[in-house]
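Notebook B, p. 112. Complex prediction, attempt 2.
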Amino acid sequence: MSIIGIELPHVGESVTEAVIGKWLKQPGDIVEKFDPLVEIVTDKVSMEFPAPHSGTLKSIVAEEGETVAMGATIAEMEVDAAVAATTTSHPDKTTAPSQAPPAGRIGTLIQGANVGPTGGTFRDTALEDRPRPPVDAAPAAPRMPGQGVPRRGYSPVVSRLAAANGVDLETLTGTGRDGRVTRKDVEAAIAAGPSAAQPLTEQPIGEDRLVQPSPIRRMIADHMVRSVSEIPHAWSTVEVDVTGLVACRSAQRQLFRERHGVDLTFLAFTAYSVARALRENPLVNSTWEDGTIRLKGRVNLGLAVAAPDGLVVPVIHDADREGISGLARRIAPLVERARSGSLALPDVQGGTFTLNNTGTLGSVWGGAIINHPQAAIVTTEAIVKRPVVLSGPAGDVIAIRSMMNVCMSFDHRIIDGAESASFMQDFKRYLESWSVDSELD
Amino acid sequence: MAEITLIEAVRAAMWEEMERDPTVFTLGEDIGARGGVFLATEGFLEKFGEDRVIDTPLAEAAIGGIALGAAVNGMRPIAEIEFGDFIWPAVNQIIGEASRVRYGTQGRRTAPLVLRVPYGGGVRGGLFHSQSVEVAFAHQPGLKVVAPATPYDAKGLLKSAIRDDDPVIFFEHKRTYRLVKGDVPDGEYTVPIGVAEVKRPGSDVTVVSYGLVLHYCLEAAATLAGEGIDVEVVDLRTLRPLDTDTVLTSVRKTGKAMVVHEDTKAGGLGGEIAAVIAEYAFEDLDAPVVRVAGPEVPAMPFSPLLEAQFMPSPEKIAAAIRDLAAY
Amino acid sequence: MLGEQSSKTQGATSNVAGNGAGPPPLNDADLLDMYRTMVLSRTLDQRIWQMNRQGRAAIVASAQGHEAAQVGAIRALDPERDRFYIYYRELTTMLALGVTPLELLLGFLAKDGEPLSGARQFPLHGALDRSRRDIVSFSNVVATQLPQAVGVALADKMRGEKRVTVAYFGDGASSMGETHEAMNFASIHRLPVIFFCENNKYAISVPLSRQMNIESISSRAAAYGMPGIEVNGFDPVAVYEAVGAAANRALSGDGPTLVEAVVERFLPHTSDDDDTRYRPAEDLEGIRDLDPIPATEKLLRASGILDDALDQEIKESAQKTVNQATEDAENAPFPEPHDFYEQVYAPGSPGDQS
């Protein structure tokens, strides 16, 4: 047997307390469940409270005439242990609504206050001791159309904002479901504004001059620091024989210009080759993200360009889908915009890998800093003619070849030597695949 | 300033209007000595007498028709339909007749009546004491349909309804009667019909609702604030004429809209709100308009788990908002 | 003699007239005036029917056969004081209350200037400006006007105004639940209402025997604790007396009365109906013999009130009035939709689109 408290039930509409009337059972009485136990009087109702359990009335806590809050203990009963185990107390019951925080105009909900189904004062306790039904048991929330399916469409507001503000949606990284570009993504892009070059401001300090870096310079600085402090860099270099490539370019340069209206640059070849190699080595086209590796679905190739105010990296989105001519056509205006400081935000967003053509500056080897948060960066160094030993059917010969070093820095969290070597060999293979009469699409 | 329940706000509005205007009277089932099954007219018989507090036979068509006739003849009746589920016999008089009085007579007759309708579930009312019937009336031009969620709005809107020169169907959610408590000014005030209110400002998702579940929306919004989702909650307050401006302004800001009501989904008011948004704010939408509403069963079952399955809850609403915010 | 032996009283109260007072006897001028109205109504009714067959009046519910009942009832009431909740077969009632043939024809032709609904509704529907007459007919749904009329009378009683509200309905509407609810409430509260039933024995095509298993509608009054009077609706004086008694009862605070005027419907339910599909030919032939207009003419002649010259003047005058009204109505324009959105809601109130 166990002793349990008997609580004053919630009776009466919007009442919070009641007066104890006559006790109809006395301590020591055997009480059957539903026996009238005590009279309860409020300003709305006067009723007999039926015993909630069978047992023995042990003590009366609230005496006749006493005013008691709803939910307060008014008596103690000795009941079967099994009954006691199912009797839980409801702490909220003792909280009178008047003690609740100020309701304000919108109002607060009074715990336990209710109307009966036909207007009475029924306090529904049926589910009181149960946890609320799990949400998935009651699928009120509809499944959104296309949920779980990667989406390429844009919502009306995204399309409108992008058009009005000249945002290239293809360059944005979506934060919505399945990478959907959201209104907020577009608004953020608009707020960031185009990356405009600003003149350096200088201030003489003694013999020195203190230069206020431009916002871009400062951004580059922060970016570099972040990259080297977060990413464990590792390096690798291969030599590439680009003799065929050089011959191809020389032979077809004029025709290409006539046909496509742009110069046939080395960069088009290297961009083409690196994009294809990336597609075949997805790990190199990835990002370390909170302990997971996000393999990027698109190959968006960043091209490091020396602009007047500092390094900028315009992006050729989906570079792996373009042929040589397509790349040449896209690279030319992009590089021009980079050099003239007129890149738009979409031009620099969404890059997944960076190609740095340091060779144009005469460099033959470099250890580039990875463009955070990408997994790797490659530099294509200067093409120099060197004597090279070639193996041919007639044995080894020494030949004068156009040689180029390709240097790679990679995130060692993602990539080990084997993967980097695989990528570099693929890159090299593409670069060496050209010949004087290669068909350029 | 007093903190009162919604039923007390309803009672206060009627009491004050009956004191103010001798043409105001009330009729309905059990509203006299009983004071109404929900006690909305408790003490009215003693105060205003049986000429102005009329217990009717159990005859909803008569309640609607007599109120209409009295209204046409210069009175301002407040008729109480005991339960929304019992309103259908009066539909002929209200949707059929009262709505067309002004139009059909070019304004030579008007019907300034108020039909008070306790409605809604979550009170263990079963199939015939739980219905949400408001949309049938909200569909009808010529009627005004009001559904307050707070004591402040209930009092201010009921006073406006009584003073309005057109028929007003005033829906009071039964569960809110004693559940919702809020501040009401001591002095005279009204709340305009036809004006929605942003009950909680937010920037990520617009949730449009009314009645009891508005409070569940607010509860869900409070939960989601902790998850970084900023929910704007719009209380329609009036279901006809709809304040589309407030809804559209909110949706243009957030780009994402959800309608929540206890009434069943297909053909519910949510469809109309969604259509208005699609029609007038299409270019501001960043996601499909979503409805959280009662399931497609004929009415709310009696047994507690079955009832809970029907009712929208803060948890169900929060889950749906979360889903929409992530879209 | 008119009015003799042509009514019987049923119901709980034998003293139909409340204070015992019947209406004052009708003089010669009253009788002639009633005859004049009946002739005008019949002439106009026939014209409207013709115009329907010409494709100009879209819908007609003819009052032919109901004229005596309608004219007798109005004679017992006060058009200035009382309130008239009519239904769709009340052409004679309208004329007796002073609505002009032109105004009525404007309604049947759906023309601009129609005074009840601006031609938004079927003919005879809407409400006349209250400053002229309190005539209301909101609906085509039968019996809805009965609880409304009770509410109207309730308002008058609450304000202490001495007026009678007459709720007109047909035998068809007597089957509606609202009829029961209205009579019950009116009797409980002793409201000044006359439930005036024009029983033409058909609810469109359904005969009385398929509408009820009792002999008369007025016998139901007993169940509500009010008097019921069944009266020959072809006898205008009998109807006058029955309604007059009911009006006195209402005005003296004794409550409602059900008056059942038994009439015949000479034409199909409406111009869209074909009564030969459901009424036996001999039935249709026989009823014309009872036509109240020739019967009244005969009695007025017999009483020396009417002679050939006066009768010719009355009939020619009616024809001339109807011809002129027809011409004027045909020349009237249709209403333009410029006020189409007006009076959906009170001007300036929420939802007003005007």
